[in-house]
Amino acid sequence: SGFVSAFTNHVEQSASRFQKAGGAVESYVFPEPSDLKKGEIELNDGEFETGLLILGETKEKVSLAEQDIQQLIDKEFKEEKIKDKRISSISQIQERLLQTEARSHGVTFNIYRTLAIISLKGSAERIPSIKMEIEKILGEVAKKEEAKWMQNLVQWRKVDSHGDKFPYSPIANLEIEKAYQSKQDNCTYQSDSEHFTVDFKQEKEINHQNGDEVLKVQRIGKTQLPDNWEPMADPTSKDHTELPLRVVDVLVGSEGYQTVLTEFNKTMEQGKKYKSIIKIQRIQNPMLYESYVAKKVHLDTHNTPDVTNERLLFHGTRKESLEPINKDNFNRSYRGQNGIVYGQGCYFARDASYSHRYSVADKQGIRYMYLVHVLVGEYTKGKDTMLEPPYNPKTAKRYDSVVDNTSNPAIFVTFHDHDVYPE
Questions:
Q1: Distance in angstroms (rounded) separating the CA atoms of residues 249 and 283
Q2: Residue 151 and residue 143: Cα distance in Å, rounded?
Q3: Strand 117-123, strand 77-83: pairing
Q4: How many whole angstroms separate alpha carbon 69 and alpha carbon 46?
Q5: Which SS3 state, helix, strand or coil, does residue 153 take?
């Protein structure tokens, strides 16, 4: 390996300098595995014992030689531990793949599933490439877990001409739902066993492996809507068609009304900062809610238990923005209207008094403000140039949001459509 070569060269150079100073060095370094006798100097798989004898005129000279060699070991040899809860879910096949890859790079690989830790020992130059392979495997594990959770929330299926229903595989289901939530026109999926395109507008699947056969597709939502919601069925229709959106007046004095009023009045004083609350409304949008719940499940699965993934935050706006927000959620294309100090995303505030500044009064002097469910997850301080959260060096994945102050955040910025639900 690179470490063996560097170590051997360094020992030879050190020995030459030491011998000129009147000392002697006798060593045996990294024998070939083929020269080893079983149980003699072979330790764990891929690890070999190395012996080095240093002789010198004085203890000081021997000590200097030891320090010189130890410095090289510290520089060239590295031991690193990776802790990630996804490690516990790595399969035996994936473990063998990583073992083989590590061995080919001269790196010792050990996995401790119960502790969710992987230990790597070897050349400092070669460990990073093994870490990249580990991250790929962990990505596959995460996707499999996400697909499982998504299947509990939404299931896409195809229906043949006889009316028989066939659910899509978990990974295909995940990719279809992601494309659907992203408001794409279609989703093309290809694997070793499948190749098809789902057209969301026509609600059809085109099977590219079977002569472009066309089948009907259905999306079955499994998310339970909140108990306090009014029924979504349209009372004016004969077949009680489900409405995509309902805006419901919350009853004065009800639990929901008091919850919003309490949060609002924490920083807003009636009579000084506002005259009165005209009404509080609840936004019932099943599609937005399902997308939000799916994203929340994803964060709850991937972030550590000590992370508070969800917060109730405020957002001040104008009357003209109410309908598009209720229908399609907050639109990042409007960023910059109220500044982009901490990033080019959607802004939400801990305090209603802050959002009050951005709630533009209409001709009647009425202002509008949302109390929003926001998935803040893990966050870091934002910058005006950010188009998305930066990478977290500890987890090698992006932060979930950015803030004004990490120790006591008052402003949160999100960058993805399904990070919020405008309740």
A1: 9
A2: 12
A3: antiparallel
A4: 22
A5: helix
Residues 6+ apart with CB under 8 A from 31: 41, 48
| CA–CA distances in Å: residue 356 to residues 352, 403, 405, 419 | 6, 19, 20, 22
pLDDT in tens, 49-99: 566 777 778 888 888 888 887 777 777 788 889 988 788 889 999 999 999
> Parallel, antiparallel, or unpaired for β 195-199 and 204-207?
antiparallel
Contact call for residues 56 and 82 (beta carbons, < 8 A): no
Return the structure tokens found at 137.
């495997």
pTM to 2 decimal places:
0.59
Note the helical H segments in 182-313: 255-265, 286-302
104-142 per-position pLDDT tens digit = 988 999 999 888 899 999 888 889 999 999 999 998 998
Strands 411-414 and 420-421, by their bridges, are: unpaired
CA-CA-CA-CA torsion sign (246, 250, 255, 261): positive
Strands 401-403 and 379-381: parallel
* 3-class secondary-structure state, position 150: helix
- What is the rounded distance in angstroms from the CA atom of residue 290 to the CA atom of residue 222? 9
CA dist., res. 247 & res. 250, Å (int)? 9
Give the Cβ contact number of residue 189 at 10 Å. Answer: 20
List pLDDT tens digits, range 139-186.
899 888 888 878 888 899 999 888 899 999 999 999 998 898 778 999
Listing DSSP states for 347-361 in one string gives EEES-HHHHGGG---
Q: Please list the residues that pair with 197 across neighbouring strands.
A: 188, 206
- pLDDT at position 384 over 80: yes
pLDDT value at residue 344: 87
Contact 25, 55 (CB under 8 A): yes
Q: Which pLDDT does position 172 carry in this prediction?
A: 94
